[in-house]
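hiii, so i know i said id send this last week but things got crazy w the move. better late than never?? heres the sequnce for the chain we talked about at the cafe, plus the structure i predicted for it. fair warning i was half asleep when i ran it
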Amino acid sequence: MANKCNGKRIVLDTFTSEIKLSNFTELNTSGFKKSINSIEWQKPVTIGDTCDIYELEGATQVPLFNQECVISKESLIKYYHGLDVEDLIINAAGVKSGVIIIILNK
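okay and structure toks below
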């Protein structure tokens, strides 16, 4: 499967290089600022795998979703209830396994 952006639902499963959500042409309307409803890490494979997603504030990476797998194949979800973000970034080694689903409010 490849990374997909379909309106409010973003599915990321390929982490071979840095991913910035502002690089998805489907999201570039007028500036990136988006409202995040939730981020879900689906089915991480191995205990100890990590998932690190950052909010970009200018050039600064601020931790937003930093999780470690404690039960194999158990999904983790975090709700943000409309948090406005300038941009999101996942570094090349930021997700060790599984799939990331980001749901936008707008």
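btw The domain at 4-104 is CATH 2.60.120 (Jelly Rolls). thought thatd interest u
miss u guys!!
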